[in-house]
């Protein structure tokens, strides 16, 4: 039950939505936003890995609240989709788009890593094989410590980590108890988990191996490079490519849900 300041009476959630749907009253809308603001906080915390190094959590929450306001205004109560499910997808998408637009990855990180990739390509052509890390560093007249630092920085700049992708498909018990307590939401979450697993299985062999060694076996970048007999830089490239493919499949699935709800 929800206590409204305007009418000083208790009304249930359905009636609150019906009143807003009929009147578009701003104060009723604000009550709905306040009720569901916890979704923004949960999603902001789940995605903290993509902004915590450069961005401020308050900015992320504010962006999420703006998205929540838009969702409340556009939500169609005649549809069968639970509001929490619909809102969570839209809020997450809005935050990720916001982070992408900020381009928080320092230009120097991008520039330095591009120099390494260019050097690696040139050496591959001249040597007829993938160069070793020390060969790339020597070609660039770069200290190995600096070389490894650049590669490690680039390795951590993927917009979503695998843990966060997993988080999309596996809610904690707390989250389940707060807003995902109906069978239909559990079915959707299981389907999302299946999409992620299928996406991993569709990756190339080296991409699957890098993902497995890094996230399942908890190996370091250099250890993976030694096992695969490739450079650290190449491992970083494979890792980034794999995460981008997984992220695209997850986002495509979630966008499909939104489009179906509009019909």
TrEMBL record:
<dbReference type="InterPro" id="IPR014284">
    <property type="entry name" value="RNA_pol_sigma-70_dom"/>
</dbReference>
<dbReference type="InterPro" id="IPR012845">
    <property type="entry name" value="RNA_pol_sigma_FliA_WhiG"/>
</dbReference>
<protein>
    <submittedName>
        <fullName>FliA/WhiG family RNA polymerase sigma factor</fullName>
    </submittedName>
</protein>
<dbReference type="GO" id="GO:0003677">
    <property type="term" value="F:DNA binding"/>
</dbReference>
<dbReference type="InterPro" id="IPR007627">
    <property type="entry name" value="RNA_pol_sigma70_r2"/>
</dbReference>
<feature type="domain" description="RNA polymerase sigma-70 region 4">
    <location>
        <begin position="201"/>
        <end position="246"/>
    </location>
</feature>
<dbReference type="InterPro" id="IPR000943">
    <property type="entry name" value="RNA_pol_sigma70"/>
</dbReference>
<feature type="coiled-coil region">
    <location>
        <begin position="236"/>
        <end position="263"/>
    </location>
</feature>
<keyword id="KW-0804">Transcription</keyword>
<keyword id="KW-0238">DNA-binding</keyword>
<dbReference type="InterPro" id="IPR007624">
    <property type="entry name" value="RNA_pol_sigma70_r3"/>
</dbReference>
<dbReference type="Pfam" id="PF04539">
    <property type="entry name" value="Sigma70_r3"/>
</dbReference>
<keyword id="KW-0175">Coiled coil</keyword>
<dbReference type="Pfam" id="PF04545">
    <property type="entry name" value="Sigma70_r4"/>
</dbReference>
<feature type="domain" description="RNA polymerase sigma-70 region 2">
    <location>
        <begin position="33"/>
        <end position="104"/>
    </location>
</feature>
<dbReference type="InterPro" id="IPR007630">
    <property type="entry name" value="RNA_pol_sigma70_r4"/>
</dbReference>
<dbReference type="GO" id="GO:0016987">
    <property type="term" value="F:sigma factor activity"/>
</dbReference>
<dbReference type="InterPro" id="IPR013324">
    <property type="entry name" value="RNA_pol_sigma_r3/r4-like"/>
</dbReference>
<feature type="domain" description="RNA polymerase sigma-70 region 3">
    <location>
        <begin position="115"/>
        <end position="167"/>
    </location>
</feature>
<dbReference type="Pfam" id="PF04542">
    <property type="entry name" value="Sigma70_r2"/>
</dbReference>
<dbReference type="InterPro" id="IPR013325">
    <property type="entry name" value="RNA_pol_sigma_r2"/>
</dbReference>
<keyword id="KW-0731">Sigma factor</keyword>
<dbReference type="GO" id="GO:0006352">
    <property type="term" value="P:DNA-templated transcription initiation"/>
</dbReference>
<keyword id="KW-0805">Transcription regulation</keyword>
<dbReference type="GO" id="GO:0003899">
    <property type="term" value="F:DNA-directed RNA polymerase activity"/>
</dbReference>
């Amino acid at each position: 039950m929800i206590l409204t300041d305007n009418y000083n009476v208790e009304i249930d959630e359905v009636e609150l939505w019906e009143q807003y749907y009929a009147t578009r009253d701003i104060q009723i809308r604000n009550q709905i936003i306040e009720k569901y603001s916890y979704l923004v906080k949960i999603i902001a915390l789940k995605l903290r890995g993509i902004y915590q190094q450069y961005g401020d959590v308050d900015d992320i929450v504010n962006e999420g609240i703006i998205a929540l306001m838009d969702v409340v205004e556009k939500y169609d109560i005649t549809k069968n989709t639970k509001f929490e499910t619909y809102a969570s997808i839209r809020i997450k998408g809005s935050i990720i788009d916001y982070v992408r637009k900020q381009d928080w990855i320092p230009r120097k990180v991008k520039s330095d890593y591009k120099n390494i990739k260019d050097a690696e390509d040139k050496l591959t052509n001249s040597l007829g094989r993938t160069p070793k890390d020390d060969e790339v560093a020597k070609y660039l007249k770069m200290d190995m410590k600096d070389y490894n630092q650049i590669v490690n920085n680039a390795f951590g700049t993927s917009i979503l980590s695998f843990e966060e992708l997993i988080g999309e498909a596996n809610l904690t018990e707390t989250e389940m108890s707060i807003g995902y307590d109906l069978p239909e939401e559990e079915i959707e979450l299981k389907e999302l988990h299946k999409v992620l697993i299928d996406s991993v299985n569709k990756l190339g062999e080296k991409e699957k191996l890098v993902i497995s060694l890094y996230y399942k076996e908890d190996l370091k970048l250099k250890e993976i490079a030694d096992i695969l007999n490739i450079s650290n830089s190449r491992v970083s490239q494979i890792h980034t490519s794999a995460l981008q493919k997984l992220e695209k499949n997850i986002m495509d699935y979630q966008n499909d849900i939104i489009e179906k709800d509009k019909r």
